[in-house]
Design brief:
The chain is built from twelve helices and five strands. It is mainly α. The longest helix has 34 residues.
């Protein structure tokens, strides 16, 4: 089977650019109050995000122009670097709001956990594409042995990202494996592992209690205020920039809880439109993965699709109190320079794969 090189997928590129522009507009609206109160500059968060966005767009363009097959040799070194960076966070990382997730290099800081996601996608895509998939048990065991070290390191201070990485791994195995029964054992083992992991720290069990009755706990304030924002938006919202809950009621409104303020300002209509955009993005990933010339390319795009889908679902579930509160950003929308940089790099990977089609 030969691969024909062409132009990158225009629909995917347009969807990504629209999401980033929408995200910047919404971010400015949500962060202006916090920026003015904390830093005396209503555009403080907007400027920082704009700088990261510029780097991310440059990275997306550069990666999209590459032949993605060249990344096969870099998959193992990239993963080893992610292990080293995640270990360095535990030793030298900066703590913020009680969590040690950042590494600082001079005036710049970044979250190695965000880099770990594309590193794991590349590693598993390269490994699974070269392995005999008929030996499903051996393949699943090998993948879990590779993924669990990074899940353990990241999960020490960032359980939500560890869950996302584990979810990406399970999805990529599921797509490439013709058998279904082994995944029953994975789900059982994963449920047991998650139960043990939650019980190791008392604050994780406390989050379960807050989730069930947020009105009884002081730490349930953010959840309740987010729900108030969603409820007060109605069908068409208060209008862009007119949120009341972002004025100090929803803590850090520009971060994990940004979807609740979107619901308040743009209403149910705006929230559904945003979810539709994410669905269109996921549909395009599926089309590109289906038409990729080889399994390596298909698995790269499938891993990216899994990453976006899991993160969007978990963020909206947290904001609506469907699951316990945990720190998960909404892709392309929430404030976070490291997140947008590596998300756009992943989009560059998907665009690179879209340039090659089966003939």
């Amino acid at each position: 089977m030969r691969a024909k090189q062409g132009k990158p997928d225009g629909f995917l590129l347009a969807a990504v650019l629209f999401l980033t522009v929408f995200g910047m507009v919404v971010l400015y609206s949500m962060s202006a109050y916090n920026g003015r109160v904390r830093f005396g500059d209503s555009a403080y968060y907007f400027k920082k995000q704009l700088f990261a966005l510029a780097l991310g767009l440059a990275a997306m363009y550069g990666v999209s122009c590459m032949d993605y097959h060249a990344l096969l040799k870099l998959s193992v070194p990239a993963y080893l670097i992610s292990l080293a960076l995640s270990g360095a966070v535990l030793l030298f990382g900066d703590a913020y709001n009680g969590s040690r997730r950042w590494l600082s290099i001079g005036p710049l800081s970044f979250q190695p956990a965000e880099y770990a996601k594309p590193a794991v996608i590349l590693l598993l895509a390269g490994f699974v594409s070269r392995m005999d998939r008929k030996k499903s048990g051996r393949m699943i065991a090998a993948v879990m042995l590779m993924v669990l070290p990074i899940v353990g390191l990241v999960g020490t201070n960032n359980l939500s990202t560890a869950v996302i990485i584990l979810g990406i791994a399970v999805l990529m195995i599921f797509i490439s494996n013709p058998k279904y029964l082994p995944f029953l054992w994975i789900l059982l083992a994963g449920s047991g592992f998650l139960g043990i992991f939650l019980s190791l720290e008392s604050y994780r069990l406390e989050r379960l209690a807050i989730w069930r009755n947020p009105e009884l706990y002081e730490k349930g304030f953010q959840t309740l205020q987010g729900l108030y924002a969603i409820g007060s938006g109605g069908l068409f919202g208060r209008g862009l920039g007119n949120s009341l809950q972002k004025l100090g009621f929803v803590p850090e409104a520009q971060n994990d809880m940004i979807f609740s303020v979107i619901c308040e300002e743009l209403g149910l209509f705006g929230a559904l439109l945003l979810m539709l955009l994410f669905l269109l993005l996921l549909w395009r990933f599926m089309v590109i993965a289906t038409h990729a010339p080889d399994l390596f390319g298909s698995l790269i795009v499938a891993g990216i699709m899994g990453h976006i889908a899991i993160q969007v679902i978990l963020n909206i579930a947290v904001v609506t109190n469907t699951i316990p509160n945990t720190g998960i950003t909404l892709p392309f929308i929430s404030y976070g320079g490291t997140s947008v940089l590596f998300l756009l790099s992943e989009m560059g990977l998907a665009l690179s794969v879209s340039r090659y089609r089966r003939t």
